[in-house]
Design brief:
This protein is an all-alpha fold. It is built from 16 helices and no strands. α1 packs antiparallel against α7 and α4 runs antiparallel to α5.
Length: 370
């Protein structure tokens, strides 16, 4: 959140907000598959620890350069790329680690609970960041972010994971290519991956343009930006808890279709208003919808994939999320500078609703995700 604020303050460009999102997310093109391959080949816990150390290092550098005259757009984007690479390795290893620390019969509930904590961090983190940015600036926000990685490191040092038999190591590209073939040849995995990419590209990407929305459409400041993103996260947390208690009583395919329609509807509400509090309602709906889609798709992927490919297939999912989000932010920023951000929201909301209809009529209602 601090990087988009700095970029917008230095350039005033929505397209540069999209570029910053690309800088943060494009490294996943390499980092996610590497993290997945390493997680399948080595200890997931060790891979995750190394990634966290790298993230603390690069976030600390961001804190240092943002305090002095060294700060420039190229340096800011360069450090964003480096931190994005470490973060993509972190996410791949972390998502795959869950299956190592819970029994197989608890896999679906575990991933739903994982969604609760993930979305809780999305609610609390941006809200805290908005307060810090408004009162102490971006440098302090970077410092807080660096320290925020320490509790997870402490947990990783405290736990142990079982040794799992692994296939003989091959060339990394062969391992990644094989995982891609496994994913694309499985109908459920393929449709899950397509769905998560559509949702990320035309839904999650809007958050990267949040600074432009608060400045140009709602005419409010950084604290409201934190409130806006925090509202999305808080709504997502409540929904994640609800889906965890719901268990398997509702089909995942049904939740995904409903989520896609609500996601698009929430964006259309935001596109139709310049009143911040009405926009906040629309964003709350997107947080609710995001969890319905994301939890169901993630659970389906983890239930269908074998342990031998879990890290790599998970990395493909994360790479799809991150790259689609970056592409959506870049495209949305360019369209926003030419036609206004409300046009972007209306277009993206329409795409999500249209995909829900297409999936219902032409993709068997995504029933392979059940």
């Amino acid at each position: 959140m601090s990087i988009p604020v700095l970029v917008y303050d230095m350039t005033g460009s929505n397209e540069m907000l999209g570029t910053a999102a690309v800088a943060a997310n494009l490294p996943s093109l390499l980092g996610s598959p590497l993290g997945g391959a390493w997680a399948d080949r080595y200890s997931k816990r060790v891979v995750l620890l190394f990634a966290l150390v790298a993230q603390i290092f690069f976030t600390s550098l961001l804190f240092y350069v943002s305090r002095g005259e060294l700060l420039s757009i190229p340096l800011l984007l360069g450090l964003t790329v480096a931190n994005g690479f470490a973060s993509s390795i972190n996410l791949s290893a972390y998502q795959a680690l869950v299956a190592d620390i819970v029994p197989q019969r608890m896999l679906r509930p575990a991933y739903k609970l994982n969604a609760v904590q993930f979305n809780l961090s999305r609610a609390v983190g941006p809200a805290v960041a908005g307060i810090v940015l408004a009162n102490w600036g971006a440098s302090t926000a970077f410092l807080v972010n660096a320290f925020a990685h320490l509790p997870l490191m402490a947990v990783l040092f405290a736990i142990s994971t079982p040794a799992r038999p692994r296939e003989a190591a091959q060339h990394l590209l062969k391992e990644i290519s094989l995982a891609a073939k496994v994913t694309w040849s499985d109908d459920a995995l393929r449709r899950a991956l397509i769905t998560i990419c559509i949702t990320s590209g035309f839904g999650m990407s809007i958050q990267s343009l949040g600074k432009g929305l608060t400045e140009e459409v709602f005419h409010v400041g950084n604290q409201e930006l934190g409130l806006m993103i925090g509202t999305i996260g808080l709504s997502a947390v409540v929904t994640a808890i609800g889906t965890a208690f719901m268990g398997e009583r509702v089909r995942g395919s049904h939740l995904v279709r409903v989520g896609l329609v609500l996601y698009g509807g929430g964006l259309l509400i935001v596109a139709s208003t310049s009143t911040f509090w009405v926009g906040l309602v629309g964003f709350a709906i997107t947080g609710f919808a995001h969890v319905l889609v994301n939890v169901s798709v993630t659970t389906a992927i983890q239930a269908h994939v074998s342990d031998a490919f879990r890290g790599r297939v998970t990395s493909l999912q994360l790479m799809g999320i991150i790259l689609s989000m970056a592409a959506g932010a870049q495209l949305g920023g360019a369209i926003g500078d030419s036609f206004g951000l409300p046009s972007v929201l209306a277009l993206y909301g329409s795409v999500l609703v249209s995909y829900a209809a297409f999936a219902h009529w032409r993709m068997d209602g995504l029933r392979g995700l059940d």
